[in-house]
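Q: Is it fine to ask for two folds in a single conversation?
A: Yes, each is treated on its own. Send the first.
Q: Here.
A: Result:
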Amino acid sequence: MKSLFTLALSCVLVGSMAFAQAPAASKSTTPAKTAKAAPASAPSAADIANAKAKGLVWVNLNTKVYHYSTDSTYGTTKNGKFMTEADAKAAGNRAAKAPGGKTAKAAPSK
């Protein structure tokens, strides 16, 4: 009877040790919260000139607003990228508004 009691006690102790270690193991396997992606570096003057020549718009990825090459914020917002206007619209972005509250117009094509 004493050996049965010892066996039962050892099973309980081993089982409790396994449960005590389980949370620690699960913490290491759970994915960490994803932080926001770091903003891309600001485009150089050459990048901006190249994008203007191609007729691309500058999309502010934080606000989902795109700017034409005639806009003063073209290529200057912290988190953005160049793309075609069609791609910007397809991604759910909208055109920036002109100072008068109207939607800004693209620069005339050459």
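Q: Second one now.
A: Result:
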Amino acid sequence: MWLRNTPVALPLALALALAAPGAALVHSSEQGRSGAPRTWALAGGTLYAGPSGAPLPDAVVLIQQGLIAAVGTRASVPLPRGTEVLDCSGLTIVPGFWNSHVHFIERKWSDASAIPGPELSGQLRDMLTRYGFTSVFDTGSQWENTRRLRDRIESGEIPGPRIHSTGEPLFPKGGAPPGHILDVLGTMRIEFPEVADAAEARAAARKNLDAGADGIKLYAATWAPPVVVLPEGAIAAAVEEAHLRGKLAFAHPSNREGLLAAVRGRVDVLVHTAPAAGEWDEGVVAAMRTAGIALIPTLKLWRYELRHDRASARDRFTEAGIGQLRSWVAAGGAVLFGTDVGYMDDYDPSDEYALMAEAGMSRQQILASLTTSPAERFSESGRRGRIATGLAADLVVLGQDPARDIRALADVRYTIRDGRLIYEAPAAYHTNGTRRTGTLRMYSE
């Protein structure tokens, strides 16, 4: 809970505490601007340390200075004096989630440095932190504005996820959406770079990266008619520029021609399936695998895009995307979770989880797409993606076990980033039968 721009010392809705054996209640004194005590613990929940492995019941995660200091059962992890304990009885603890496809382009994000703190916090909560996202990759926005948003989060002024961004995406010449289309979509008016050849593509990529962007985004083929395809030489030149700096290249495929151009251009991540491209046969999948590509499915997006069309057309288009993901997963392809929220204003990821399961992804594979797979792809696996001693305390506490219902991944009660509580569900959710959960108090021996 946050008031103005300063985090509250302890969530006001939290009540009766869960004590370690032999502990006695004392008052809190360690909260400060971080939004979480310097030493605290989650206790009593069922823990999934990563996508694989058996769940650990009655688990404890000890957090110190933003890192995971110990993980184990309550009986095996002694709590230091002064540890505050969050009662997670009846809840499920998993690693913090990545959303690898978001946008900060809606008009409400304009002039991010001037948006009042409580309003900006609410926007981040509604789109991201309430769904457990501790890290996101923005794959196309006005970079200078997104940088200001990120700076306000990293300063500790407002709670929010870790933001990576490609800045402004590169369009083929004549392919950027005109201003009146952006107005209808509710998007900020952004000056998108358009490139015609390898030299222009390399220069545009260099400009974004010089400005501090974390990668580049290319429209291998545009999304609105008339569809324009970016020349393969231009894709390859921009990708090479990114790779020379150790950065990743993302591509929007749109159709079969754009998909194959992106693959041949050696992009790292496809930000969508491509229902318009038809079935992905063995040759397409093999080429993608050889290129080392990761795929962000965005299956819910296809229902959203065709929401004004006949149900039969919408279902066929969505099923085509599901079929492509099914072929990709069967071939062992890497999958990153992402939803295109910020372009899509329906932020709830529940349907995306269900559609990924319909495509044949197991609960373990879906959890990997949220945690270990993006951590590996974005060179963060030494710091995030699992619940293990020494890693950053990026954690999500769920109200239900996703092993029983995959939609439970969206039933988030707490989101914790670097040991700081950046989201808690309303007080009405903190009940489990007749037992109240979600209590945080400080204890000492």
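Q: Anything structural to flag on that second result?
A: Two points. The domain at 2-95+386-444 is CATH 2.30.40.10 (Urease, subunit C; domain 1). The chain has two domains: 2-95+386-444, 97-377.
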